[in-house]
UniProtKB/TrEMBL annotation:
The keyword Transmembrane helix applies. This is diguanylate cyclase. Pfam families: CHASE8, GGDEF. Keywords: Membrane, Transmembrane, Transmembrane helix. The chain crosses the membrane at residues 21-44, 153-179. Its EC number is 2.7.7.65. Residues 181-234 form the HAMP domain. PROSITE patterns: GGDEF, HAMP. Residues 276-404 form the GGDEF domain. It comes from Candidatus Pantoea communis. Pathway: Purine metabolism; 3',5'-cyclic di-GMP biosynthesis. InterPro entries: CHASE8, Diguanylate_Cyclase, GGDEF_dom, HAMP_dom, Nucleotide_cyclase, Rev_trsase/Diguanyl_cyclase.
Length: 404
């Protein structure tokens, strides 16, 4: 499970860039290494063959007298002198009548598979040159080249070349890491900005400028998108606030609706131990049905609007006026703390509602409301205080039926 988890983890772009740089540098350096190595090998092959040809030509000239007189001692001495200096591996001197004067071989040379392979690749076969005297061939000198110098040269060349390539690879890796720093920093700025926007929901953040053209274009597009999303977010918040306000507002009168009224009443009851007591007023229209029947629903709407505005004018800022539905209104009064103040308010309400209301046709209409109220008590619930105010209102109407 742990291996699968590690295997499924995605590598970062930093690691990918490093891999790309290393692979790219390694491939280029490998190709350079192969090119330089092959060039060096071809050069050493040509050099060794040419060197053996020069040694054979020089030695054949010095062996002319010894070959003519068949002086094997002198010939062996001259061949051994050069052979011991590592000029060749074996030498064979044969006269024109096939008499072997010298058959010299380097006794210190111990050839392995690598040396044998290298010798076969460089020389292919021993080099034979004629020994001439008075334009006649008096003998043949056969030399087998040595690869001791070539072996050391190739070994040290490969070591130095490989070490140099490794150093270049390390320098290339460090240089690429330094050059990638700007790209990685730009990507970090972009990703951190996006993560901040996602986690915080704040679309006011803008991605900083980048010196790279492609990243700058990408940043500009993201900034444009963030600006558009910020605008949409602000518009959405405005719409939500507007919808929330409308959801708690009576569309006809602009007063609080039943839901807002119940919410405020619940809040006051929950905090009644920390605040002074309040009073709930229930107001019911007395002639609303006849107004609708005689002058139409438009006139009834005008009457409801007038009642709502007059109630709102009598309420203080901390009070609440709501339309519960139809011709029923309610008020939550927290600005009057005594019964005397309450009675004065109810009288002001009756006088304000009793004033004539001009409908669209220019006809004056008079109406009135019946008021019931209930003071808050400890332990009240929304249902209990509503019932008390409702009962008081019906009592004032002179109706014995209690509405639940």
């Amino acid at each position: 499970m742990k291996f699968e988890k590690i295997k499924n983890e995605k590598s970062s772009i930093r690691i990918r860039l490093r891999k790309i740089s290393i692979i790219n540098s390694a491939v280029i350096l490998l190709l350079c290494w192969l090119l330089l190595t092959s060039t060096s090998l071809l050069f050493i092959k040509r050099y060794e063959k040419r060197n053996l040809e020069l040694i054979a030509a020089t030695l054949s000239n010095s062996l002319t007298a010894a070959t003519v007189f068949e002086d094997s001692y002198d010939a062996h001495k001259k061949i051994a002198m050069l052979g011991n200096e590592g000029m060749f591996a074996t030498a064979k001197l044969v006269t024109d009548d096939q008499t072997v004067l010298v058959n010299w071989q380097d006794q210190q040379q111990q050839d392995g598979w690598y040396e044998n392979f290298l010798r076969e690749w460089i020389y292919a076969r021993p080099l034979s040159v004629n020994i001439n005297h008075a334009e006649n061939v008096v003998g043949t000198l056969t030399l087998a080249g040595t690869v001791k110098g070539a072996t050391d040269f190739i070994r040290y060349s490969v070591m130095i070349l490989s070490s140099g390539m490794l150093c270049v690879l390390i320098v290339a890796f460090m240089l690429s890491a330094f050059l990638h720093r700007g790209i990685l920093q730009t990507l970090r700025n972009i990703t951190s900005s996006i993560h901040y926007v996602i986690s915080s929901g704040d679309f006011s953040l803008r991605i900083p400028e980048s010196p790279t053209k492609e990243f700058q274009l990408f940043s500009d597009d993201l900034n444009s998108l963030l600006a558009e999303m910020q605008s949409l977010q602000a518009s959405l918040l405005r719409d939500n606030r507007s919808l929330a306000a409308k959801a708690l507002e009576d569309p006809l009168t602009g007063l609080a609706n039943r839901a807002a009224f119940v919410t405020q009443l619940t809040r006051l009851l929950d905090g009644q131990f920390a605040h002074e007591r309040f009073v709930l007023l229930f107001l019911d229209g007395d002639r609303f049905k006849s107004i609708n029947d005689n002058w139409g629903h438009a006139a009834g709407d005008e009457v409801l609007k007038a009642i709502g505005s007059r109630l709102l004018a009598l309420a203080y800022k901390q009070d609440m006026v709501a339309r519960l539905g139809g011709d029923e209104f309610a008020m939550l009064i927290t600005s009057r703390a005594t019964e005397k103040q309450l009675l004065q308010l109810t009288e002001e309400i009756r006088e304000a509602i009793a004033q004539k209301i001009m409908i669209a046709e220019g006809t004056p209409i008079t109406t009135s409301v019946t008021i019931g109220y209930a003071w808050s008590q400890h332990g009240d619930t929304v249902q209990s205080i509503l019932e008390r105010a409702d009962m008081h209102m019906y009592k004032n109407k002179g109706i014995s039926k209690v509405r639940v």
